[in-house]
Amino acid sequence: MGARNSKRTLLKKITSLNLYIDQAVQIKALMEATGSEKEAPLLRQLIDEALAARRRKSVQSAEPEPPPPTQDISETLQTLQTLLLRIIGQEEIASRIQGVSLELLQEAVAEARGGRSSLWKFLVAPGLEEKGSSSEQVALLFEAEGEDAKEFAYGLAEEIKRDLEADDTDPTGSLSDDDRQGSFVYDTETKEQAHPTA
Question: Which helix (H) or strand (E) holds 139?
Answer without folding.
Answer: helix 135-169
